[in-house]
Amino acid sequence: MKMIKKVNTYKPLSDFNSAVRKLSSNGIRPTKQRMILAKLLFENGKRHISAEKLYDEVKKDNRKISLATIYNSLKQFSSIGLIREIVVDQNKSIYCTNKEEHYHLYIEDEEKIIDIPKKNIDLNIPQMPACMNLHNVDVIVRIRTLKENIKN
Ligand SMILES: [Zn+2]
Questions:
Q1: Which of 53, 82, 131, 152 could form a disulfide with 77 if both were Cys (CB 3.0 to 4.6 A apart)?
Q2: Residue 112's domain spans which residues?
Q3: What is the pLDDT of residue 32?
Q4: H or E segment to which residue 96 belongs
Q5: Helices 51-60 and 67-79, interaxial angle, to 10°?
Q6: Is residue 151 situated within a structural domain?
Q7: Is there a domain that residue 76 lies in?
């Protein structure tokens, strides 16, 4: 029997490595602090995280990065499309690392975000004027736990 020749399979870049690449291609220097944050963000699968929670993870990892630096880095990362900022209220943003197109379900009283596949929500977007280009659509479906149900 003939041996099957081993084929070199294409290995896609890890989320972390492609994040680092995107930072440098956008002229953002890969400082040690940015690398630590990118590692925490992208080496834990798709996730939604606030600056404060990321700050807790940094501390747990025995690293020192100020909350202000974390805020700035998250803003910077989202400005180049590395992560998505979800403004859940005027004082709070949660950041999403899922790069696929999707919408969000926000459970307000639990401050929890869940991804909704785009196909699950039908939008009727009006025709754009010829000189305009549809850039992005953000949908946040906000829900709350029924308080009466909890008491029973
Ligand atoms: Zn998401």
A1: 82
A2: 15-143
A3: 94
A4: strand 92-96
A5: 120
A6: no
A7: yes
Helix ranges, 15-120 (H) = 15-25, 32-42, 51-60, 67-79
CB-CB contact of 102 with 118 (8 Å): yes
Distance CA 148, CA 152 (A): 7
Using the mean position of ligand 1's atoms as its centre, give its distance from the Cα of residue 139 in Å: 10
How close is the Cα of 24 to the center of ligand 1, in Å? 24
Distance CA 107, CA 119 (A): 20
Q: How far apart are the CA of 98 and the centre of ligand 1, in A?
A: 5
- Looking at the domain assignment, is residue 5 inside a domain? no
d(CA 142, CA 139): 10
pLDDT at 152 over 60: no
% pLDDT > 70, the chain: 90
For residue 34, give the CATH number of its domain. Answer: 1.10.10.10
What is the Cα–Cα distance from 30 to 38, expressed in whole angstroms? Answer: 10
pLDDT at residue 136, rounded to an integer: 85
If one counts the domains in the chain, the total is 1
How close is the Cα of 146 to the center of ligand 1, in Å? 24
pLDDT tier at 148 (50, 70, 90 boundaries)? confident
